[in-house]
Amino acid sequence: MKRIFEEFYNIVDDNFNIYALFSGYEKCIPLHKVEGFRDYFLFHYIIEGKGSVTVNHRTHNLEKGSGFIFPPGERYCYQSDEKTPWIYKWIGFSGSEC
């Protein structure tokens, strides 16, 4: 299976109370895993497939039609399924009104 990854960046104007930083699309490979911390909000919407999200030591199994969001400074980990990996879109955003 081939990984497909596209990401688009926004020119940020700090005068706005909420603004998009970037957005993207990914067709994940089996067991694709991402973990870490961010200094902005990150939202994913699952178009196809299955996987798991772990936040605060709790794992949630998510599939098509679900979404997940990580606030700044929170440790996260997410991984696509081995047999039916995710296809998802995401947006990173920030601002004082988030």
Task: Give a description of the structure.
0% of the residues lie in helices and 57% in strands. The chain is an all-beta fold and 98 residues long. The chain is globular, with a radius of gyration of 14 Å. The model has no long low-confidence stretch (mean pLDDT 88).
Question: What distinguishing features does this structure have?
Answer:
single chain; 98 residues; mainly beta; five-stranded antiparallel beta sheet; four-stranded antiparallel beta sheet; 9 strands; 0% helix
| Count of individual beta strands | 9
Give helix and strand order, one letter per element, not per position. Answer: EEEEEEEEE
Quote the average pLDDT. 88
- What Rg do the Cα atoms give? 14 Å
Estimated share of beta-strand residues: over 45%
What portion of residues is helical?
under 10%
Termini separation comes to 37 Å
* Tertiary shape: globular
Given helix and strand content, the structural type is mainly beta
Task: Please give the count of helices.
Answer: 0
Could you state the oligomeric state of the chains shown? single chain
Main sheet?
Answer: 5 strands, antiparallel
Main sheet strand line-up: 1-2-9-4-7
Low-confidence stretches: none
